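User: Here's a protein and a ligand (TNX). What would the complex look like?
Assistant: Let me lay out the input and then the predicted complex.
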Amino acid sequence: ASCATARGDDAKPGGPRPAAPAGFGQLLPAPASVRPSGSGHVLGPGTVIRTGRTGNAEVRRVGELLAGQLRGPTGLPLPVVDAPGGGGIELRLDAAAPDLGDEGYRLESGPRAVTLTARTPAGLFHAGQTLRQLLPAAGAGTIPGGTVTDAPRFAYRGAMLDIARHFFTTEQVKRYVDQLAQYKVNALHLHLTDDQGWRIAVDSWPRLAEYGGGSEVGGGPGGYWTKDEYRDLVRYAAERYVEVVPEVDMPGHVNAALASYAELNCDGKAPPRYTGTKVGFSSLCTGIERTYDFVEDVLAEVAALTPGRYLHIGGDEASATPAADYAAFMDRAQQAVARHGKTVVGWHQLAGARPAPGAVLQYWGHDRTGAAEKERVAAAGKAGHPVILSPADRLYLDMKYDAATKPGLSWAGYVPVRRAYEWDPGAYLAGLPAGAVLGVEAPLWTETVATREDLEYMAFPRVLGLAELGWSQGPPDWAEYGPRLAAQAPRMEAQGIGYHRAPDVPWQ
Ligand code: TNX
């Protein structure tokens, strides 16, 4: 076969690599195993997508979505039909396919059919995204012959977007969901509240959004999402097997809430809204009961909007809250999350207080983070807390690529594309057992990111490294990954993604 195969099979590092044709060797994230064989499957005007064998409405929906994604680039009609067998693209749920796990799939391609098999609709969705990448970025074509058997390394593969520092609409976020889901990212963490803005409607405390939503960094108008808009986004993400993780950041990062309700302030006076970029200056008043009414009401309403498992309560940079008050506050906030049937996620500072049993910690340290802080997170992992890794000097998409990057910050250093990719989440934090790593997440803070163009420029192509680290078996190999990343350029271009042509990527 002329196509290079995926990493871990018989890839020839440094060997010649075909430029134009899509092949198994270009898949990103790299699949667990590839066996090329025989001639492939030619898509043509008569090709149909078959979802019928199980009569399952969700499989049908996955088929319709895949058809929608393929029609544009291929120019083919690709009707979705319920008649099973008979060739074309076939989606098959097979509950007895134990090697495939909750998200895995098998893709078998031959002259008669391309068959996608999975235990779950999520697996079929991921299989469909692989199939997209086996076709050229534009035009119909041939899906190469052979079998891909694939499953993720980590259960949690997330991206975070801060819609508090700068407001983004649900339509803009849906576009990001589409961009991410095609690379098998399965979690979208939304940073909904911060000093500069409160972005989600709360019926019991309406001024949070109506007043607290009316500001953003730099003095722009801000904005907020209604509950219907939020539900619509959650549904849209769920159809792409992306779980939304809402974050209400507490007890710091709350100026927008304090500005909206004087009664939340220890002195009973509401501060003005804030449009700067400092952190660590605001705190809920941990000594008054009204604060806990607020916490309960807000978490109850956000939990009710959330079909997913997780509720993120922030807990970072609470430098305006004394340590003992912080711990006592986080105890009660975590109890509220549990009352509403959700699992706590907190930034890793929660490890310095009393994380509730099962609470997930999100580590955002970096190479220069102190040893004691790292050890606390590793110890929490050993004690059974799952850890999401978001090292700031690897995965923070708001860090500049290099000195020439216009948007972005650099407090954790510059993060070139290679650096974002070249580390192993399973062996990253000393003393943290590999089994405690729930996964990886790439946060995009938006103090300096105000538009869709900025967002795409900072996220792409670095977020593809996140997708690869989260899904594919390690360890990373830049010589192998770089060309595979470069091969995504025509796909990103075809989708209008305004990615950064970073100088460390071997673009063709
Ligand atoms: C740190 S990381 C923050 C955010 C900032 C970000 C900017 C974390 C949990 N907190 O408040 O937006 O740095 O890079």
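Summary: The pocket of TNX is lined by residues 279, 316-317, 347, 364, 396, 398, 409, 445, 447 (CB under 6 Å).
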